[in-house]
Write a structure and sequence with these properties.
CATH class: Alpha Beta
Shape: globular
Number of helices: 6
Largest sheet: 5 strands, antiparallel
CATH topology: Ribosomal Protein L22, Chain A
Oligomer: single chain
CATH superfamily: 4'-phosphopantetheinyl transferase domain
Number of domains: 1
CATH architecture: Alpha-Beta Complex
Helix content: 25-40%
Length: 211
């Protein structure tokens, strides 16, 4: 297996549910109805995706993924990250630490407020943009930075403003912690997708497998 492999899967949110473990069923029951369905959907398909790449039955994979916390695997099984928007689940796996994020490209956000409050280092290059063009460029930055925060296992509230993106190099930096990451961006159909991984890895652009 390629030591620097990144694998990505996209799964429609309305896909039928896959089996999850008894522990995950117990966690699922503690959630509201909307979050409960989302939790069951994501964990079932994460298990199936990992089963395909690791060659282990889905329910036997020692995935630790309680609600609201970053998912974890034993060190020799690589790293997994996932994200969802209203209609798609994105799953990412790598032999090294990874973070992924997805948003619909037509999502409307408060772009000016986000730019002023969190993206001050990138603000100068986007200051002349307005309307949908500004919305689109800020959203692209958002998915890049959220992927980095998932790589970091941090939080949007504490860490969003600490990541700086260098457009000309596709590098994300967090000088507070000394992190430097490679940032991949994919405009796939109706979605913006980003993958963050160590800048030291020699990895080509990831390819998405569609369920």
């Amino acid at each position: 297996m390629n030591k620097n492999l990144i694998a990505l899967w996209s799964v429609p949110i309305d896909s039928y549910l896959k089996p999850i473990t008894l522990q995950e069923i117990a966690w699922k029951k503690e959630l509201s109805s909307g979050r409960s369905s989302q939790y069951a959907h994501s964990r079932g398909y994460v298990r199936e995706a990992l089963s395909n790449i690791l060659g282990i039955p889905a329910l036997e994979i020692p995935l630790k993924s309680p609600p609201g916390l970053p998912p974890g695997l034993p060190e020799d099984m690589g790293c997994v990250s996932f994200s969802h928007c209203r209609d798609i689940l994105l799953i990412g796996w790598s032999s090294h630490n990874i973070g992924v994020d997805i948003e619909r490209s037509d999502r409307s956000i408060e772009a000016k407020k986000i730019l002023d409050g969190f993206f001050k280092n990138e603000k100068k290059s986007l200051n002349d943009l307005e309307g949908m063009q500004l919305n689109s460029e800020v959203l692209k930055l958002w998915v890049r930075k959220e992927a980095a925060i998932k790589w970091q296992k941090g939080s949007i509230f504490n860490d969003l403003s600490k990541w700086n993106f260098k457009l000309e190099t596709n590098i994300l930096e967090n000088k507070d912690y000394g992190y430097k990451l490679k940032s991949f961006f994919i405009n796939y159909k109706n979605w913006y997708i980003s993958v963050a991984c160590s800048n030291n890895l020699e990895i080509d652009n990831p390819i998405i497998c569609v369920y």
